[in-house]
């Protein structure tokens, strides 16, 4: 879970920076910035004149910042786990690890219980015998997980990812 803490800290820093810059711009635009006179310049004179003559760079900047905000929002939603189906089931994950204890290098293994059935995700290294892993899953492990978490008739989706 450590990577999620890093994601959330990064999002908090980026979000606070953007919120501060947006608040400053809004206050300056409405002449409500504390003791600063409304005629005080934010940009140097030549830059202000160049932007007054041709405002297109500001529109491109606004579009770029909007795209950055959308990417940050997607990052936040994925980091919070939205879009994933079902809830994590620790018992099923433990049973999956016990059943595959002979496979070295397993990572990102999990069992989720969704409305439409079980979802099992498994990542193994390239050196692992994928055929043996699939046959173990097919013969007994998925059935045991089904019986423990729900029942034998529960539809199950197994996603196996092989790392390079």
UniProtKB/TrEMBL annotation:
<protein>
    <recommendedName>
        <fullName>Alkaline shock response membrane anchor protein AmaP</fullName>
    </recommendedName>
</protein>
<feature type="transmembrane region" description="Helical">
    <location>
        <begin position="9"/>
        <end position="27"/>
    </location>
</feature>
<feature type="transmembrane region" description="Helical">
    <location>
        <begin position="56"/>
        <end position="77"/>
    </location>
</feature>
<keyword id="KW-0472">Membrane</keyword>
<keyword id="KW-1133">Transmembrane helix</keyword>
<keyword id="KW-0812">Transmembrane</keyword>
